[in-house]
Amino acid sequence: MAGTQRYLRYIVFALFALVLLYFIGSSSTVPSAPSWPSYTSGDKDTLTPGKPSIHEAEEAPPVVATPHESHAPAAVKPPTTPADHELPPATIAGDRMNATFVTLARNQDIWEIAKSIRHVEDRFNRKFNYDWVFLNDDDFNDEFKKVTSALVSGKTKYGKIPKEHWSFPEWIDQDKAARVREEMKEKKIIYGDSISYRHMCRYESGFFFRHPLMLDYEWYWRVEPSVELHCDINYDTFKFMAENKKKYSFTLSLYEYVETIPTLWDATKNFTKTFPEHVAKDNSLKFISDDNGETYNHCHFWSNFEIGNLNWLRSKAYIDYFESLDHNGGFFYERWGDAPVHSIAAALMLKKDEIHFFNDIAYYHVPFTHCPTGEQYRLDHKCHCNPKDNFDWNGYSCTSKFYELNDMKKPEGYDKEQ
User: Fold this and answer.
1) How many CB atoms lie within 10 A of CB 238?
2) Residue in 390, 400, 379 with CA at minimum distance from that of residue 231
3) Which of 69, 124, 160, 260 is such that its CA lies 20 to 30 A from the CA of 273?
C-alpha cells in the first residue's frame, strides 16, 4: 500500500513538471516588452537621461530609438541633471571681452564667497562664462580652490599677494601708526584699530590691478564675500562699458566716515597742484565737492562693487596719485579707504560721462541695498529685492548728486519708493 502511494506522488510531480515546462517554453516565443527607464522623483539610482539605473546597467542594454521611432511616450520627458556638476554653457552668443571677476579673500571666507559666486553666476555669468581671479595674502588651500572652481563657469586663477604689497612701507613710523590705531579704538571708529584692514585698503587702492594674474585683462568686476545680486542681468556689462566709453561704474554711493580721512583732501590738493595735467576737463568735481574743490564733501562710490577699466588704473595719472597718497602715510596714520581713493581719482581724472551708474544691477552688501527703481523692470528681470530697502534716495546717499551733476532725470516712480 505504501509503495502504491509513493508511485502516485511521483506521477503527480512529473505531471506538474511537464505543465511548468510547457508554459515556460510557450512564453519564450512571445516578444518581450521594452524595459522602460525609471525616472521617479527622489530616485537616487537614476543616471543621466538615456542611461539605465545603476541596478540595470549590467543587465539590460540601453533602449535605442531611431528618429522615426521612440519607445517612450512623446509627452513624457525625464528630468535632466547637469553632468559632473557643471553649470549650463554660456547662453548669450557673441565675442567676450578681455575681462575677469576679481576677489580678495582668505581661506576662511570660503562659504561667504561661495554665496557671492552663486549670485553672480546665476544672475549673470552662467550666460557669459567670464574668468575669476582670487587673490590672498597667503596661499589658498585645496578646499577653497575645489569649491570655488566648481562654482565658477569660467576659468579660476589663484594668486598670492607679494609681501611688499601687504606690509608697512619702510617710510612708515610704526610707533606713530600704533598710537593712531589705539586712539581710533578708544573712539570706536569702525576698523580703526585693524592692521589688516589698512593693508587691504592700501592694496585695493594701488596694487590689485598690477598683480601678474590681472595683467592678462583689460576689464574687471570686483566681488566680495557675502554680496547678493537681486535681478537677472541679460547683457554683457563689460561690453556695455567698452562700447559706451565708460571706465568706472558703481551701484551705491554714500558719505565716508569723516574720522577716517581727516587729511585726505589736503593730500589730494597737493597732488593736483603738483600734477595739474592729470585733472580732466569736464570732470566730476561737483560730485565730491560743494565749493569748487575747496573742501571734500565726503561723497564716494562704494567700491565693494566696481566694474572698471584696468588700463585706467594702470595709467600714469592714477599711479602718480596713489604713490603720492602712499608716501603721505594716510593709509596707516589715519584709515584711508580704497573707496574714497578710487572715487576722488575717478571724479578728477575721468570725464564725467566716463563714469556709469548701474541702476539695473540690483546689489546688496551689508548693510545697504540698491534695488532698481521701477516696478516693471523688477518684474521683467525677476528681481527679489524689496524696493523699500533701496538706498539710492536716502539722505545719506550721494546718488542724487550724481544725477544732478550729469543732468539725469531720476527714474520714474522714485519718489513713491522712498
Assistant:
1) 23
2) 379
3) 260
Selecting among 121, 204, 256, 306, the annotated active-site residue is: 306
DSSP H or E segment with residue 3: helix 2-27
Q: What is the pLDDT of residue 90?
A: 65
Query: Which of 57-61, 188-192, 387-391 is predicted with the least confidence, judged by mean pLDDT?
Result: 57-61
Whether residue 121 lies in the annotated active site: no
- Give backbone dihedrals phi and psi of 83, rounded to 5 degrees, phi first: -70, 140
- Residue ranges per structural domain of the chain: 99-357, 363-416
How crowded is residue 135: how many other Cβ atoms within 10 Å of its Cβ?
Answer: 23
Which tens digits make up the pLDDT trace of 104-115?
999 999 999 999
What does R_g of the chain's alpha carbons equal in angstroms? 32
Main-chain phi, psi angles of 253, to 5 degrees? -140, 150
Task: Report the top-level CATH class of 99-357.
Answer: alpha beta
For residues 148 and 150, what is the distance between their CA atoms, to the nearest angstrom? 5
Residue 5 has a pLDDT of 52
8 Å CB contact between 336 and 264: yes
For 344-398, the pLDDT digits (tens) are 999 999 999 999 999 999 999 999 999 999 899 999 999 999 999 999 999 999 9
* Degrees to nearest 5, angle at CA 352 with 346 and 357: 80
Angstrom distances, CA of residue 68 to CA of 32, 65, 74, 282, 387:
21, 8, 12, 67, 52
